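Data availability (excerpt). All sequences and predicted token strings are deposited with the supplementary files. A representative entry, Bile acid:sodium symporter family protein, is shown inline so that the format can be inspected without opening the archive.
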Amino acid sequence: MQSDIVSTIFLPASLAFIMLSLGLGLTPADFRRIVAQPRALLVGVGCHFVLLPLVCYLMVQTFGITGAFAVGFMIVASCPTGATSNILTYIARGDVALAVSFTAVASVLTIFTLPFIVAWSLGHFMGTQQTVEVPVRMMMGQVFMMLALPVGVGMLLRHLWPAATQRREPVATRIATVLFLIILVLAIIKNWPLLRDNFTTLAPFALGLNLTMLAIGFIVAWLARLSRRQSVTLGIETAIQNAALALVIATTVLKQDAMAVPGVLYGVLMYVGGLLFANIMRRFTTTA
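Structure token line:
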């Protein structure tokens, strides 16, 4: 019962508040700038939808991971970026407007890319052919309720009461950071048996994939001559995945519990790499 309350009420409410707190620091001008100069979004799409699955496949082959676990990691790589990437972007002093925009764009594009990647992975690693249906309504509802709506409310509050909002934004940000840490601890507690049983075999791979994609996303953006804040953002957006969707695909759509193990491990360990990356980048990135 307590676990259900945490999953159905506390976690969604916490994510919504985190996104609202980010919205307090955004203005429509932030999003107009991205539309006017879409190069960062295009670079992010290339990193997330081409390089991430490709690197994941090459690492799976190199590490000798096979069967259901290999498919599980490919499912993770084919999912959109997670909403919590936005709070990591804020911690890293990245471009939050770009992060929010990319999360929304990635969630839509995944509807078309995920079925292809997962179906190919099933045939390649399991020798089975299966049509994979993406839970479109769930994804769109999740994006709206936990991303678009709270960010929009935060921006509306900033517009209506700018002075009061700016005074309260630091408090909201501190609360959001605490909630983010609580989410991380709860994820570890909830999935502790899976983490414990598979840590030595699969955890190094999951963490290695996360750190590799953080570096690749940042370096590719830097080579594309994007700003440091945009490069930091795309590093995070390339590596932080929607692990909840990966679990839904594995357990509900494919009905293979073993395929969910990589999602659980990556869903927890990506915050280890993400927080390390965010705090390092914060030291060298200004908000100007």
